[in-house]
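Anyone up for a design puzzle?
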């Protein structure tokens, strides 16, 4: 009985390894892609779930709920960032001292990764507490490597940086839509 069991186990192992080898050759799932419709034009984003899975999930969940639709950009630092994600920006005057302090009512833990903060990168804003991110995000207008391993990078602009370059404080987000899951 044992003489027949060993060759059978070898056959099972070999066929399983062939299946695993074919599975490892499979193409990775395409990155989630979104389009932000600003008043000034569209910006296409590619997200990085392998680098920051919880940030990507959080952002996609908020987008699907329409959380960002109608918000305004509340911060623009030339050569640095365009920031949005404060739900108060839908109704508060841009000069209100509370502008830029709002969020979704919860926070998520940091997912620092090896992605550098270069022009076009999508990052998650936070307070001094690394685990205080929620909904505020920023698009990099230029490289800022001092943010590396201090903030979570979770995507990048693939089309429309010319639109990002023109954004001013108070510009409204018409919508953000997931175009590829």
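Challenge accepted. My sequence:
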């Amino acid at each position: 009985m044992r003489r027949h069991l060993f060759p059978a186990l070898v056959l099972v192992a070999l066929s399983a390894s062939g299946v695993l080898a074919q599975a490892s050759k499979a193409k990775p799932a395409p990155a989630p892609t979104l389009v932000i419709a600003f008043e000034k034009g569209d910006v296409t984003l590619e997200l990085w779930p392998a680098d920051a899975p919880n940030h990507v999930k959080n952002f996609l969940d908020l987008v699907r709920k329409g959380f960002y639709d109608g918000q305004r950009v509340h911060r623009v630092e030339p050569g640095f960032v365009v920031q949005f994600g404060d739900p108060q920006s839908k109704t508060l005057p841009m000069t209100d001292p509370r502008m830029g302090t709002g969020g979704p009512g919860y926070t998520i833990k940091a997912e620092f990764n090896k992605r550098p903060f270069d022009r076009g990168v999508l990052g998650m804003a936070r307070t001094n507490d690394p685990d205080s991110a929620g909904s505020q995000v920023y698009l990099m207008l230029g490289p800022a490597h001092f943010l590396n391993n201090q903030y979570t990078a979770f995507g990048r602009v693939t089309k429309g940086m010319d639109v990002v370059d023109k954004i001013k404080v108070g510009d409204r987000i018409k919508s953000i839509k997931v175009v590829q899951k």
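A detail worth pointing out: The chain has one domain: 28-180.
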